[in-house]
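Project outcomes to date are best conveyed with an example. Our students and postdoctoral researchers have been running inverse folding experiments weekly, and each run begins with a structure described purely in tokens. The record below, which covers 334 residues, was selected by the lab manager from last quarter's runs and is presented without edits.
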């Protein structure tokens, strides 16, 4: 049975990576909730999609932190803003979360200012209280290791403290880099997911070491065999499973799901969103000439049914309720 992962919680309905968002995901039937993990200055793991804070918090409205706005090079890209690693947890607690896409998701933006940045420990406690799993992503592992704030050790320590350290436990640890997952394989029995980008680039740790292996190489049979030596599965964009043509419509499915299954790997796909702007043209609904067309809901149920029909093992959805409903209907034979 494919798993349903609440992507950044239920980020279609509440500001992402907040306890509010995770709670709604659980209410909607998610099997797992997904925190993206970054570190604070005092080495506490918190959940943000990136370590720069201005896109999803009110930090720009805090004059006491104005002087900490800076520019950094992270994974080869230059970013200006405020960064989690420059703030203690106590300082981050003074911030409030905001919706990343307020125009697209005004109902979620109505919850701006109502939630803090959660810690990993709080997320684990919430998950265990409700009997669901967690699906953490280690963000920028090489970068955080380079500044003396590695994510992996505190992550494993926290999970072990709450009794999660076995392959049968409801945890998947994901990363776009390869080296940290290989190191984790010798440190834990928890299941690991190798994330693979949509483009033909090279994972950042391999790029830094001069390894020419690309993301396209990783999805070949040889690449999948290598991944199977340390990971339980792969996390890919939906276009890796069923490409989209220049007209936005779906093409023929690739062999990736079958190739991965032959190596004993699960295949989890991301990201499923309700809005027309995020759906293949086959599943968009309404009049494209209308101003609100791009943020109007399309036939996400049809898109999910298509993906489940391709035998994927899990979906990461901003609306986990839709993913759960379609899965349950298909299992029931509907």
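After processing, the design step wrote out the following sequence:
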């Amino acid at each position: 049975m494919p798993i349903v992962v609440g992507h950044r919680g239920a980020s279609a309905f509440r500001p992402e990576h907040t306890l509010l968002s995770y709670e709604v995901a659980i209410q909607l039937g998610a099997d797992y909730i997904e925190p993206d993990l970054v570190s604070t200055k005092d080495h506490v793991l918190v959940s943000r999609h990136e370590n720069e804070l201005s896109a999803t918090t009110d930090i720009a409205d805090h004059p006491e932190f104005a002087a900490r706005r800076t520019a950094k090079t992270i994974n080869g890209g230059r970013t200006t803003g405020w960064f989690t690693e420059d703030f203690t947890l106590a300082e981050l607690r003074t911030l409030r979360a905001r919706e990343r896409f307020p125009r697209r998701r005004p109902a979620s933006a109505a919850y701006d200012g109502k939630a803090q940045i959660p810690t990993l420990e709080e997320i684990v406690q919430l998950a265990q209280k409700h009997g669901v799993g967690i699906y953490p992503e280690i963000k920028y592992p090489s970068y955080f290791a380079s500044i003396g704030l590695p994510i992996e050790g505190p992550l494993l320590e926290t999970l072990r403290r709450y009794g999660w350290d076995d392959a049968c436990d409801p945890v998947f640890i994901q990363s776009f880099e390869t080296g940290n997952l290989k190191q984790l394989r010798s440190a834990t029995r928890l299941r690991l997911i190798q994330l693979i980008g949509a483009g033909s680039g090279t994972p950042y740790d391999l790029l830094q070491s001069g390894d020419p292996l690309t993301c396209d190489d990783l999805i070949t049979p040889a690449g999948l065999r290598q991944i199977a030596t340390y990971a339980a599965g792969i996390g890919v964009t939906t276009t890796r499973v069923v490409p989209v043509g220049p007209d936005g419509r779906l093409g023929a499915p690739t062999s990736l799901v079958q190739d991965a299954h032959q190596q004993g790997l699960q295949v989890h796909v991301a990201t499923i969103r309700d809005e027309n702007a995020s759906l293949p043209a086959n599943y968009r609904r309404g009049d494209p000439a209308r101003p609100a067309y791009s943020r109007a809901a399309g036939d996400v149920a049809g898109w999910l049914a298509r993906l489940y029909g391709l035998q994927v093992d899990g979906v990461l959805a901003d609306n986990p309720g839709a993913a759960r409903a379609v899965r349950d209907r298909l299992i029931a034979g509907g």
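The chain has one domain: 3-49+118-331. The radius of gyration is 19 Å. The training component of this project remains on track.
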